[in-house]
Amino acid sequence: MELNELRQMWNRHATDEPTPLSAHSVARMVARKSDSVVTRLRRNAWWEVGSIVYVIIALPFGIDYFNNQFIKGYLLTFELLSVAFLYYYYRKFKLLRRMDHVDKDVRGHLQTLILGLRGLLTIYLRLSLWVTIAAIIATTSYRAYRLTLKYDGGELFWSIGLTVIIMFLTGTVLYWLMIKFTKWYLQKLYGQHLDRLEGYLHELQAE
Amino acid sequence: MAPDPNTAEFLTLVNAHQAMLRRICRLYCADADDQQDLFQEIVLQLWRAYPRYEVRGAKISTWMYRIGLNVAVSDLRQRTRKPAPDRLNPQVLEVAQAPDLGTDSTEIATLYRAIEWLSEVEKAFVLLYLEEHTYEEMADILGITQNNVRVKMHRIQEKLRKIFSRSEQWN
Known about the structure:
The complex is a heterodimer of chains A (about 210) and B (about 170). Chain A is mostly helical and about 210 residues long. Chain A has helices spanning about 5-15, 25-30, 35-65, 70-100, 105-150, 155-205. Chain A has one domain (about 35-205). Chain A is elongated and about 95 Å long. With about 170 residues, chain B is mainly alpha-helical. Chain B has helices at about 5-15, 20-30, 30-55, 60-75, 75-80, 105-115, 120-130, 135-140, 145-170. Classes of the chains: A mainly alpha (about 210), B mainly alpha (about 170). Chains A and B meet through α1, α2, α5 and α6 of A and α1, α2, α3, α4 and α6 of B. Chain B: Keywords: DNA-directed RNA polymerase, Transcription.
């Protein structure tokens, strides 16, 4: 069958006009929550922001509760880190806002979605990186402080040196595991969708 | 963003293009509930994008096709319910088994069933072609060159020919 015949077939049936929508039904449609992937990502991001805000509010109580200066410092590090996370979420929302514009041409829209999803992956990976680095620095500092109470002179120097090496190696392994886990989690979360969108874009662009 | 388009104007716009929007939904979703979900999502996205329409200056139907197709192509739901086939397989013969709803209904149902075997991207090409768009308009909506549209349409025609010839062999 030729495309022209299909078009004729299509036109024979395209003339049926559906019942006009009432103002009420259109109002209901525009008032509903969107099911789009971007809306769902934004909803998840708000939950994550909620959890971080909760941590930001709760940590000062912990800082006040503990007497140990280094536990206080440890918690303060995470308090500052949590505040810094809000910047990442600001960037995430900015990306999501860009992905929300569906009035581009199909290729442009697919490109925006793909770039946006890739951007979100980068943001998550950076968050993992900073959490790991902060945890390692805080833990190393805490252990070094404990060592200053036990040793002095050359013994202290070697103990701290050894601690730094152990923490560095532990941090490297921990970071590798964090990245592995984050990538696996993100692939589960967005991977399938991203792969499909990339497939569509490739198909659309290929000549 | 809180859109504040003139409601009556938007209602008129949606009603004037409702049939076209329904055809997009029918083409991308076989299931009636999915079609309604997709239609509502398209109307919602049109509403959100409407305040930006004036600035863009594109033809209103072109703008609506863009949004309709963008929502349909990038939508996750129908893919999870019904994965798109990546190649022709024996099930393609179901094309010939459209429900007997009278001559016209069977004809269009057969066409829809054939189109179901195309990829989501190919469906967009076919829809725009069937809706009497020129290659220039198709290129504008899809964001590719006219030459690419021509090449793709040629391949799609071959694919549809195979689908229909197999369904005829089955008959």
